Amino acid sequence: MSETGGPLYVGVDWSDGPWFAVAFDRDGFDHAAVFGEIGDLWVRYEERAERVLVDVPIGLVEEGEEGRRCDALAREVLGPMADSLVVPPVREATRKRRYPAAQRVNERKAGRGISERAFAMSDGIAAVDQLLQNVPEASAAFAESHPELCYRAFADEPLEHSSAYAAGYAERMRTLAQYDRDAPPAVQAAAAATEGYEVAVADVLDAVALAYTAAPGDGALRTLPADPPTDAKGLPMGIAYRANEPFDAE
């Protein structure tokens, strides 16, 4: 791996622990790395990152019952995997350290509670939100994506099995290999980079899927919705995927 060179296209997975990044260059897999903080990740890639796709929500609602349109659209196209998409808390709630406090804020601001999964993601959501508000260069490079939407686009149909099970692993590996025959060795190399860290197998697959979506390849980089609105801080509320044709939900 070279620290100098052309642009990198980075997929980043976070699951209430370390940030796991898989970086592709124009020729394919370049390297993978684990970071304790999103700020450390940005310092590593700020000079070369053409695009960073991260699997936490970017662009947050301040208040109101309507929520983000991108979440509703993604659920429409994910089929059996719709529940994998977590509707994020309102911005103020992501800053709360305790679940009951976050619940109260969300109920007051949006008229609804939040799931425990959504609360568990709050630290990661808030960390990315703060970075993008404070660092314009990062805001220009980062975009939200979702691994299941990436797989859905690559497979051209909804997946059927949860990534928590062996059938789901096989389904996702098959989907990546159909998209690029070099995907299996890329997954193996990415997994090897996690030695010494607690990174789940599903998180490795997801980061690779995000990296393939970020990198130039078959199809165009698209978003749900096609023309994302921005939140009160000017951050877009859209979920990226790569496909030849847009989803019907757009």
List the helices and strands and how they pair.
Blueprint lengths: L7 E7 L4 E7 L2 E8 L2 H8 L3 E6 L14 H10 L12 H4 L4 H12 L5 H5 L1 H13 L1 H6 E3 L2 H9 L10 H14 L3 H10 L8 H14 L5 E5 L14 E5 L7
Parallel strand pairs: 1-4, 4-5
Antiparallel strand pairs: 1-2, 2-3, 6-7
Helix pairs in contact: 8-11, 9-11, 10-11
Features:
single chain, 250 residues, two-stranded antiparallel ribbon
Care to describe what's here?
With 250 residues, this protein is of the alpha/beta class. The protein has eleven helices and seven strands. The protein has a five-stranded mixed β-sheet with strand order 3-2-1-4-5, sandwiched between helices. Strands 6-7 form a two-stranded antiparallel ribbon. Strand 1 (8-14) and strand 2 form a beta hairpin. The radius of gyration is 17 Å and the shape is globular. The model has no long low-confidence stretch (mean pLDDT 94).
